[in-house]
Amino acid sequence: MNTLRTAMLLAAMTALFMGAGFLIGGTGGMMIALLIAAGMNLFSYWNADKMVLSMNRAVEVNEENAPEYYAIVQALAKQAGLPMPKTYLIDSPQPNAFATGRNPENAAVAASTGLLERLSHEEVAAVMAHELAHVQHRDTLTMTIVATLAGAISMLGNFAFFFGGSRDNNNPLGFVGVLVAMLVAPFAAMIVQMAVSRTREYEADRRGAEICGRPLWLASALDKIARGAERIPNLDAERNPAMAHLFIINPLSGERMDNLFSTHPSTENRIAALQQMASEMGSTSQAMRREAPMAADEPPAGPWGKPDEPVPPTEPARPKPNPWGRNPTGARGAGPKGPWS
């Protein structure tokens, strides 16, 4: 359903672009805007991962300087059938994470130090599973297409004054059509772009819960991240708000509601969907056990080598304070093996 919804939104964006060009009336400005926007977004597509990682001052880590964090991503990538992505760490107290890269073969995932410090092992696993779901679904490609069309529509609005007044543009609505193309079309494109982003988040939640095997792990993580993001600013994201849609939770202040102007669904709605998914998975597991009980020598299921028993959705997760017991990435500046050394 979410895939179909995304396809419909992309079709709406294409139709909006064509309609804006029709309102302006000329093909010259439309083609120039499309070529410029496509060139800009094509450059971003091939270099977006480097740009985003650089803007967040992310540092690549490995099994030596971040063994537990790296092992989580490695196990989840194997579970999802994905190549091992490059793994990065962001020196930020705000708990958050994102994925980038043009395809699974050139993907990168990044988590903040705040995420690793404030979440349990299971919650970190659920968050990284969500990010790997974005990689698996090639959401970067989807959002690049949407951004290309949105950029082209915005440029059509900027070019409206130059091409809207020509006598040979066959504009059916005259100056009214120019105003619509200049003001309404970019606003509508922004709404569609945000709707696509929110749709992708719901789908990544679902697939991420499937990869890690426990929807409630992700529900608990989303609650902690949202509360942390409200209290702790992300200065790099505030300086570059255009990359806010990449994060699992909006890193910016404000925009907490699930409305047309938010790049993320409300955390409450996402948690409710995950709780419903956990309930359904629990009911299915119980029915399967009644029909075909597990043999005594059958190996346990789940990516962490533990039986994947259903957890009642009403049972809250109670991870211990500082659940890692130590800094999972090594102390900052602790020597040549530290990620910031």
How does this model look, in words?
- The structure is a single chain.
- With 341 residues, the chain is mainly α.
- It is 58% helix and 5% strand.
- A four-stranded mixed β-sheet has the order 1-2-4-3, sandwiched between helices.
- Helix 7 (174-212) packs across helix 8 and helix 8 (215-231) runs antiparallel to helix 10 (267-291).
- The longest helix has 39 residues, at 174-212.
- Residues 294-326 and 330-336 have low confidence and may be disordered.
* pLDDT averaged residue by residue: 74
Q: Please report the distance between the alpha carbons of the first and last residues.
A: 46 Å
Q: Strand order across the biggest sheet?
A: 1-2-4-3
Order of helices and strands: HHEHEEEHHHHHHH
DSSP strand count:
4
Structural class call reads mainly alpha
Give the percentage of residues in beta strands: under 5%
Query: What kind of oligomer do you see?
Result: single chain
Number of helices: 10
- Report the C-alpha radius of gyration, rounded: 23 Å
Principal-axes shape call: globular
Helical content, roughly? 55-70%
Any low-confidence stretches, pLDDT <50, length ≥5?
Answer: 294-326, 330-336
Most strands sheet: 4 strands, mixed
At a glance:
This protein has 341 residues and is mainly α. It contains 10 helices and 4 strands; from the N terminus they run ααβαβββααααααα.
What's the arrangement of secondary structure elements?
Elements: H1 2-24, H2 27-55, E1 59-60, H3 67-80, E2 86-90, E3 97-100, E4 108-112, H4 113-118, H5 121-136, H6 139-163, H7 174-212, H8 215-231, H9 235-239, H10 267-291
Parallel strand pairs: 2-4
Antiparallel strand pairs: 1-2, 3-4
